[in-house]
């Protein structure tokens, strides 16, 4: 007959088994901890990439906004200079017109203005001269058509045309008259 193990041997076997079980649990826990750490690092990297991409989009949008503002400011400043130049050109034209009224060619200028007004209305028509501003008004015989021609009227039309060009340059083509 064989001998049965004693209580000490049984306790030793239980302790040995418990030690093996503890080592196995620790190894599984360490493996699981490494897996969790790797997943967390991957998630952090993904979140960092997404955050960086979002920041890059925001920065690009801000850059475009600032660039647009700078372009608009440059256009506005350029147009302001053009307007000043136009105002100066029209001021000089008004001075020249005033000198022409008093000069030797005043009669020739009035005749040319009258001919242009007559041509705009057609024959037969009546002509009326305004003494203060050299304005000539032609009215058709039936009264349905009329044309006003004079230095001030011509300058006014030219100024309106130039303002339209400035507005088109600032705001884009409007499709209206030039």
Q: What descriptors fit this protein?
A:
178 residues; mainly alpha; 2 domains; 75% helix; 9% strand
Structure description:
There is one protein chain. The chain has two domains: 11-102; 106-178, no CATH class. The chain has helices at residues 7-102, 106-121, 151-171; strands at residues 125-130, 135-140, 146-149. The termini are far apart. Strands 1-2-3 form a three-stranded antiparallel sheet. Strand 1 and strand 2 (135-140) form a beta hairpin. The longest helix has 96 residues, at 7-102. The chain contains three helices and three strands.
Mind sketching the topology for me?
Layout: H1 7-102, H2 106-121, E1 125-130, E2 135-140, E3 146-149, H3 151-171
Antiparallel strand pairs: 1-2, 2-3
What does this entry show, briefly?
By secondary structure, the protein is mainly alpha-helical. The chain has helices at residues 7-102, 106-121, 151-171, and strands spanning 125-130, 135-140, 146-149. It is built from three helices and three strands, in the order ααβββα.
What gross morphology would you assign?
rod-shaped
Helix-strand category: mainly alpha
Poorly predicted ranges: none
Tally of individual domains: 2
Q: What is the topology, as strand order, of the major beta sheet? A: 1-2-3
Amino-to-carboxy terminus distance: 125 Å
Number of strands: 3
Helix content: over 70%
Average pLDDT, to the nearest integer? 84
Specify the biggest β-sheet. Answer: 3 strands, antiparallel
């Amino acid at each position: 007959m064989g001998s049965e193990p004693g209580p000490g041997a049984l306790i030793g076997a239980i302790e040995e088994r418990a030690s093996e079980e503890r080592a196995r649990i620790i190894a599984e826990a360490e493996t699981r901890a490494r897996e969790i750490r790797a997943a967390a690092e991957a998630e952090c990297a993904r979140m960092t990439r997404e955050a960086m991409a979002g920041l890059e989009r925001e920065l690009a949008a801000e850059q475009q906004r600032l660039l647009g503002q700078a372009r608009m400011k440059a256009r506005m400043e350029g147009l302001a200079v053009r307007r000043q130049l136009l105002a100066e050109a029209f001021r000089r034209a008004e001075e020249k017109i005033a000198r022409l009224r008093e000069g030797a060619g005043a009669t020739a200028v009035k005749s040319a203005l009258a001919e242009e007004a007559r041509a705009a209305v057609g024959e037969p028509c009546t002509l009326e001269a305004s003494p203060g501003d050299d304005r000539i008004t032609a009215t058709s015989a039936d009264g349905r058509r009329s044309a006003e021609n004079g230095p001030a009227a011509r300058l006014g039309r030219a100024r309106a045309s130039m303002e339209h060009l400035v507005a088109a340059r600032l705001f884009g083509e409007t499709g209206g008259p030039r």
